[in-house]
Design brief:
By secondary structure, the chain is α/β, with parallel strands linked by helices. The chain has 8 helices and 12 strands. The protein is globular and about 50 Å long. The N and C termini lie far apart (43 Å).
Length: 229
């Protein structure tokens, strides 16, 4: 993996970089948010490991910029902010995983490897339902005559729905399979992600409506019958 590590504490940065290097991965380090965005512009990274409490631009601002810019690479937050509210905020902004400090380097590496593997690997090359196509090799989504750029979390959510068209997934099931949260934290993170994904699909070709159906008080499903004309 090519890792972009965004961490202002040099001791922690050196510890993480040594651990990933020993595991055979390449690590580039940014000491503040502004530097991270400059390095990100150069491309070539498989994953970003992001601290939240950063100088110049904090981690939240960096994450917003990353997702607003259409970057779909996984973002793993590594932070001393351990409250549930902080974790959920990170997920709502488009983070793919959240590891609290202090941490085990072995676990951090394993989580990063899993995120990158999920991003690149799949048994079926593509999924299709009506007018939407999900290319699992190129990680591209097309809807009717338009293309859709999704974050890693949005991509995983759409992939989940497309694997079982017509199946009604509860919010708890989606939290478990997309966010790896095994309890109900009374959050609207699923609804926020769904609405963000709908807006992107509509922007690609809004004339044909939205293919994701909400069942009030229950959850979401991908419509089985979609007009092709």
């Amino acid at each position: 993996m090519n890792v972009l590590l965004v961490e202002d504490e040099n001791r922690i940065a050196e510890f993480v970089a040594q651990g990933f290097s020993a595991a055979g991965h390449s690590v580039a380090h940014a000491g503040d948010g502004a530097q991270a965005l400059e390095q990100l512009a150069g491309g070539g990274y498989d994953i970003m490991i992001l601290d939240l409490m950063l100088p110049v631009k904090d981690g939240v601002e960096v994450l917003r910029h990353v997702r607003a810019g259409g970057h779909t690479m996984p973002v793993l937050i590594l932070s001393a902010k351990v409250e549930l509210e902080d974790r959920l905020k990170g997920f709502e902004l488009g983070a793919d995983d959240y590891v609290p400090k202090p941490f085990y380097i072995e676990e951090l590496i394993a989580r990063a490897q899993l995120l990158v593997a999920r991003r690149g690997g799949a048994t079926e090359a593509s999924l299709q339902a009506g007018g939407i196509k999900l290319d699992r090799l190129k990680r591209e989504v097309s809807w009717r005559d338009g293309s859709v750029v999704l974050s890693s979390r949005e991509y995983r959510l759409l992939e989940l729905l497309m694997r079982s068209p017509g199946h009604l997934f509860s919010r708890q099931q989606i939290l478990q399979q997309v966010w790896d949260i095994n309890f109900d934290p009374q959050t609207n993170v699923v609804d926020v992600c769904i609405q963000r994904m709908k807006r992107k699909i509509e922007a690609a070709d809004g004339a044909h409506g939205v293919l994701i159906e909400s069942v009030r008080g229950v959850g979401y499903r991908l419509k089985v019958q979609l007009a092709d004309g």
